[in-house]
Amino acid sequence: MSLLKTKLNRRKFLAYSGGTLAAGAMASKFSTIKAVASEHGKQSKESGSKTVPSACAICVNKCSLFADVKDGVIHKLNPNHNFFKSRSMLCARGNVGAKVPYSPDRLKKPLIRTGKRGEGKWKEVSWDEAYDYIIENVIKLINKYDNRSSIAFASTEGLQEEFFRHLTSVVGSTNSVRHPTLCLASNIQGYSSVYGTLPDADIANAKFVVMAGSNRAEAFITPDTIDLAKKHKEQTFVYLDPRATKSAALADKWFPIKPGTDMAVVLAMINVIISEELYDKEFVNKYTHGFDQLKEHVKENTPEWAEKESEIPADEIRWMARKFAENAPASVWYPGRRSSFTANDVYYRRACAILNAIVGAWDRKGGLIPKSGISLKSHEFIFPLYDRVKNRIDGGKVNFAADILPEYIKSNKGMPKDEVAYLSEADGSWVLFRDAILKQKPYPVKGMFVYKQNPVESVPNRSKTLEMLKSMEFICTIDIQMSDTAWYSDVVLPESTYLERWDPAHSLGGVAPVVIFRKPVIDPLFDTKSMKDITVDLTERFLKKEEFWVDAWEEDKAYMRDYVKTFKGVPMSHIIEHQLSDYPGAYKMLMEKGCFYKTDKIPYGKTLKEGARLKTKTGKIELASVRYPEAGLHALPVYQKPSEAPQGKYRFVVGRHAQFTQANTQNVPYLLEAYGHYTNMLWIHPKSALKQGLNDGDYAIVKSSVGEQKVKVHVTEYTRPDTVFYLHGFGRLSKWLTNVYKVGASDAEILEDYAETISGNALLHETFVEIKKA
Amino acid sequence: MSENSRALKLAEANQKLAHKRRNAKEKWGIVLDTSKCIDCKACTVACKMENYVPVGFYNYRIWVAEDTHYANYPTISRSFQPSQCQQCENPPCVHVCPTHASYKTADGVVMVDADKCILCKYCMTACPYDARYESHTTEAIDKCTFCYQRREEGRDPACVETCPPKVRVFGDLNDPNSEVYKLLAENEYTVLKPGKGTKPKLKYIK
Amino acid sequence: MTTNVSTMNVFAKNDKISNIWLILTLLISLLGVYGLFNVLINGHDVYGVTRTVPWGILISTYVFFVVSSTGLCLVSSMGHVFGIENFEVIGKRSIILAIFTLLCGFGVIALELGHPFRMMIYNVISPNFKSAIWWMGTLYGIYLVFIIVEFYFLMKHNHKGAFYAGLGGFLAGISAHSNLGAVFGLLEARPFWHGPYLPIYFILSALISGSALIIIIFFVAYRSPSNMPEKVVKVLKSITKIFGFLIGVLIFFDIWKVITSIYGAPPEKFEAVQTLLSGQLGVNFWLFEVALGMLIPFFIIIFTKGRNIKASLVAAISAVIGIFYMRYDLVIAGQLVPMREPAPGAHVQGALPNGLVSYTPSFTEVSIVIGAIAFCAFLYLMAEKYLNLNEE
Ligand SMILES: Nc1nc2c(c(=O)[nH]1)N[C@H]1C(S)=C(S)[C@@H](COP(=O)(O)OP(=O)(O)OC[C@H]3O[C@@H](n4cnc5c(=O)[nH]c(N)nc54)[C@H](O)[C@@H]3O)O[C@H]1N2
Ligand SMILES: Nc1nc2c(c(=O)[nH]1)N[C@H]1C(S)=C(S)[C@@H](COP(=O)(O)OP(=O)(O)OC[C@H]3O[C@@H](n4cnc5c(=O)[nH]c(N)nc54)[C@H](O)[C@@H]3O)O[C@H]1N2
Ligand code: SF4
Ligand code: SF4
Ligand code: SF4
Ligand code: SF4
Ligand code: SF4
Ligand SMILES: [Mo]
Questions:
Q1: C114 CA to chain B: closest CA distance, Å?
Q2: Which of A194, A757, B125, C193 has fewest C-beta within 10 Å?
Q3: Closest CA to C366 of C31, C2, C12, C8
Q4: In a domain, C162, yes or no
């Protein structure tokens, strides 16, 4: 399994780019943005207007845009009408991007910590000083622990992330940990186990859509959000969520499902479809594997049973099942994005995939469509052959793996107890990773690079993350603002914002793939660099340190010299040209139209063609998995009843808001203002509020087993009586996030740190909280 | 150049453009299908960016209100109503303005000439839609201009262009070939506060 | 050029006006200076007005001042314009106070306007004849000229001149004032104000203010009825009767205003009136507007049959305070029903849970108001002390 088991083989360490992304940034004080650019930033000498194509980087969608620049200052970012994936839109966050480079709260110069960690004392240093400091510490740690893997690399997707991954390889650590196990790892795993891939939904053409656990109206995924909101006339949209989100506003029916029970509904729908023989027999015969086992498996899962679990009336479930079959293949049970929900998540996602398969709503108009991409020529990075490297700290057998499971699922046979069954080599499993570091098992990890990620807020159980940071001897964070993680770092490197830098071309996978890129809309205002420059500069400096290469081959060093030469001298535009060199005219189209695509039509049925194979073991749609039993897992999705809320406690769930990207844009005044409040609030049902003696506008203490937060109360019928919620990204620790520092409550602080052991995904809906009037 | 002077420059440019277009024949309007609105506020933020409307809770030209009906839990229906200046054909704000600072362009867009505005705020009390506010950048009354600066390029207003599901459609209500004209022909629609006699050019599809 | 008035005639020292009062009113005026500086330095943010209630206490105080001015002018014109006997004695005093109240009114509104100087320019070069505010402003400008001229002629004992200027002032005042009513009455957006009622109501209340103020200033001039010449006492008695009668009419007006605003619950009007009857302006309405402004003066005059002018003074003071609140309530209540529903997300400024909006004057606004009133009193006391305002 390990990347480095066979040390004699050079392994190409390819940057993982499964389309699993998240991102972006920015800040600015309420008062004014004038001061910044003029006081410290470089004044532009440009005059006149220009329009520059680029792409938004504030979230994973990377919507293509045209920037309107007047006299060297960004005036407005406008949607790119050629970019069909976003249906010609920029969301609120995308629009506010125009202010990102001018934010007074952004990072402007490299910083080295002078006070205690987290004390907030910094000195501005030159890049050279910062680099020297980093090189010295990295080499010190590698020597001290005799292990390049003693340095961890944490990152979240983005077009520059590949360069951060290069840095990981230069240093030679196996310990990279990426965002998927906070986000969609279980989703990828569940769907891939059935289809060999995580497909997209053809929302624009679907006639019957069930969305459970995805709030598409607020959590933007292009083009799904827009297609759903367009509400074409023949579409029925059923929405399952314990909260009446803005997606509920679009829905024909909203069911406040009991959290963690979605799978019961899916199994019951499968039960109805099979028992009423509504499934697509021909399709099932031809393209699927294991139908008979499935039929047997769901026998007991009647709508009446599911009603007891989910609190959705049996009749409604039956109605959903019949409609689902009737509208097939234009039916979708929407594959969500963030699936860091409850412990049974992988099996739940499997069930969803199976439901779509039995009605033949796969790779046909209006159904689930496998993603496709436009393959670009990439610069392959060779992972050097170092001696002082150990396997991933969270990889292979981990004897404390069971510790990350919630109690109620520990006895479940289909849950591995001594490892993460399908751990991704590139992504790791954040929760387990952190535990392993804290336990120093099997070896100490004492240094850390963080790129475009903010684990202090994004990994559940904030105190534990802080403890992990405390245990580090060296932390370097590369960000555009002083994230909470940067706040606890030793060196903070300012990356140029997405509007000030070139980013390589990138194919956005999806039902109709399209390529985007970034070019500077304005010159960098401050002393910042791109991740590419940082990696190249650091590599160049490492090359000057003999002691760094003692365990490397001369060939590797030569390769690194070559790498530096290539990337240092060549402008990004040439790299992009090279990336697109397989497609004549593509570069020109990209530069002029802002995006490149071959067609905007969806190529239905590629996987249904004669001789086509899916990336599963049988090559077919695996209703019953062939691989799973081999790994000691259930072949079919087995329902696990979630634990009931203990007396007097409530289940805490998390979710998105259209004004905020993860824990990222909360500091932006324009967005706080559009959001409508300056803090987050606890959603609690009137009945529960009454029980706790709370009124709207009161303050409450929300307490779990790992932490507590004080938060303003919002009494609302928009949530179930047994479920509470508040928005992510408030109650921050970094003082430089001026508008949200200690404003409102942090969810990371109270979330208990569970993960499931099939994909390693964190579980953000397994926390029960006590609520008391503050 | 500061945000303020940019705002002033834009206001001036719009006066000039209005003068240049004094023989324009169009009648601009917006048709809205609010059932598509997801309250994402792309429109409100885009407007601020395009028109230099500064940060401030009550500095806005455009807003999205929520209209929720509660029956018995969980029978809740949420919906959103985005709106802005109605660009009235019979605009009380223009009638009351003592100095002609508020005026209507040839193509029917109600605008404010910041130079002439004495900030008496009479127009604010006269507008039945609360569409106006006092701007600290232009030191005058400010309101939706249908992004008049975009007329020259023929570009949709910022709020219209950026809206994800395209709740708003902008166009010439006089032109039978325009999308707005067709939408009005094909759908039942209403205007806000019809009883006030303002004849709004924002039309809401029922 | 009829008579050549000697300085002795224009100036005369009135010893009844003590320096203490002068100093006191001047000191209180300093509060207004504080307000003034606060606005000049910090801009209009220091006001309590909002997007939804753009007109606050400065507007209502302006209205109070100009209503007073118009009232003083109208009542005094009974003498030298309409030749009602004995009324000449009130001429100088009312007109000088009319000038001061108007100037203070202008001062207050200048502080409320964002660009008072710009107004002077664009009112002339870019007039909108459809705008009630334009007419109101312009007519009050003309009115000011007339009453200044009138005062000049009065001081010069030029009766003919005073007659023409007085007539001009009367006409300008009455048109300006009904236009002020129209400023509100023409607003279809605000049903509480909308309609022909306000212009008429404004004239009526002007006469009340004028009468009340005249009673008060004669007490200021003479301290007590025992010092007053017979003629003055007689006039004050007549004015008291007119004053009482007009309050009666006002009560009648108000009752119908309230009934028509409640009957059938006409939308928006009803809610606005509710703010007076039982809402945020309830105390203002019942205690100040109704009790002090109408009932107390009305009954005092009824019970004394208008013969006890000391009682009239109490009635007048009570009424003036009440009328100040009437102006405030009128201006504010008309704006408390927001033009948009304060639904979540709508950002209706000042929205309250009951669907209305609210307004509270800021300290700066209040200080300007108090300062302006005190300064007006100071000016009047100075005039009283150093000018010959007696008619003999
Ligand atoms: N409690 C809770 N935890 C969660 C979630 C939740 O909803 N609630 N959601 C989970 C999910 S789905 C995800 S995807 C993760 C996301 O978690 P993270 O990957 O940590 O994402 P963000 O919180 O957006 O933080 C991104 C950081 O990148 C920085 N950044 C932005 N643009 C740039 C750039 O151009 N260059 C550099 N160098 N830095 C940049 C930002 O300033 C910010 O500090 O969080 C997960 N964790
Ligand atoms: N505006 C905006 N858009 C974004 C992002 C963002 O931060 N902001 N982030 C991007 C990223 S990284 C991701 S991963 C996606 C996330 O987008 P989504 O996958 O849509 O995730 P969430 O918003 O976390 O929505 C989860 C919803 O599930 C509900 N829920 C909780 N428990 C249950 C349950 O047991 N059953 C059911 N049926 N529902 C439940 C929650 O109330 C919540 O509304 O959004 C992407 N798009
Ligand atoms: S959805 Fe919004 S934030 Fe995300 S990339 Fe597109 S415009 Fe940017
Ligand atoms: S941009 Fe469109 S969908 Fe979003 S809030 Fe505005 S009108 Fe509604
Ligand atoms: S505030 Fe300005 S625009 Fe409004 S009426 Fe007065 S002068 Fe005209
Ligand atoms: S909506 Fe208000 S501001 Fe707009 S034109 Fe009509 S009255 Fe004037
Ligand atoms: S048309 Fe332009 S000015 Fe008017 S609300 Fe839309 S973006 Fe703002
Ligand atoms: Mo995510």
A1: 5
A2: C193
A3: C31
A4: yes
Continuous segment of H or E residues that includes residue A323: helix A314-327
Contact list, B158 vs chain A (CB under 8 Å): 76, 78
Residues in chain A with CB shorter than 8 Å from the CB of C353 are none
Strands A723-725 and A650-653: parallel
Q: What are phi and psi of C115, to 5 degrees?
A: -135, 75
* Domains held by chain B: number: 1
In the predicted structure, residue A26 carries a pLDDT above the cut 80: no
**Domain annotation covers residue C13:** no
Chain B residues 96-135 within an 8 A CB cutoff of chain C: 96-101, 115-122, 124-130, 132-134
Domain boundaries, chain A: 3-102, 111-182+375-593, 185-369+604-630, 650-773
Verify whether the Cβ–Cβ distance A674 to B57 is below 8 Å: no
C332 to chain B: which residues are within 8 Å by CB? none
**Which atom of ligand 6 is nearest to B132's Cα?**
3
ipTM confidence: 0.94
Whole-number Å distance, alpha carbon A62 to ligand 8 midpoint, is: 14
Give residues with Cβ within 8 angstroms of C82, minimum separation 6: none
Q: What is the mean pLDDT of residues A159-188?
A: 97
* CATH classification of the domain holding C264: 1.20.1630.10
Rounded to 10 degrees, what is the CA torsion of B175, B180, B183, B184? -70
User: Which residues lie closer than 8 Å to B98 by C-beta, 6 or more apart?
Assistant: B118, B120, B122, C119, C122, C123, C127, C128, C131, C133, C134, C137
pTM of the model: 0.94
The pLDDT value recorded for residue A18 is 26
CA distance A732 to A680: 12
Asked if the Cβ–Cβ distance from C122 to B130 is below 8 Å, we say: no
Task: Give the residue from chain C lying closest to A676, CA to CA.
Answer: C345
- Point out the residue among B57, B117, B122 whose CB comes nearest to the CB of C347: B57
Helix extents (H) in chain B: 3-20, 42-51, 92-96, 122-126, 158-162, 179-186
Q: Is the CB of residue A258 below 6 angstroms from any atom belonging to ligand 3?
A: no
Categorize the per-residue pLDDT at A31 as very low, low, confident or very high, splitting at 50, 70 and 90: very low
User: Which 8-state DSSP code applies to residue A240?
Assistant: E
Asked, for residue C14, whether it belongs to a domain, the answer is no
How many cross-chain Cβ pairs, B to C, lie less than 8 Å apart?
134
Count of the separate structural domains present in chain C? 1
- CA C17-C308-C326 angle, to 5 degrees, is 75
Question: How near does any CA of chain C get to the CA of A676, in Å?
Answer: 7
Domain residues for C148? 19-339+351-386
User: How far from B181 is each of A500, B156, B173, B204, C256, CA to CA, in Å?
Assistant: 42, 16, 5, 13, 47
For the A185-369+604-630 domain, the top CATH level (class) is alpha beta
The parent domain of residue B131 ranges over: 3-205
Report pLDDT for A14.
28
The domain over range A3-102 is classified in CATH as 2.40.37.10: no
Residue of B nearest to C56 (CA): B121
How sure is the predictor about C3, in pLDDT bands with cuts at 50, 70 and 90? very low
Residue B79 binned pLDDT confidence (cut-offs 50, 70, 90):
very high
A91 lines ligand 3 (CB under 6 A): yes
Q: What is the mean pLDDT of residues B10-21?
A: 95
Q: Do B78 and A244 touch (CB under 8 A)?
A: yes
Q: How confident is the model at residue C392 (pLDDT cuts 50, 70, 90)?
A: low
Residue of minimum CA distance from atom 4 in ligand 4: B40
C263 occurs within a structural domain: yes
Closest C-alpha among A98, A488, A754, C373 to residue B6? A98
The predicted-structure confidence for C225-277, as pLDDT tens digits, reads as follows 889 988 899 999 999 999 999 999 999 999 999 999 999 899 999 999 999 99
Q: What is the mean pLDDT of chain C?
A: 92
Chain C: nearest CA to A675, how far in angstroms?
8
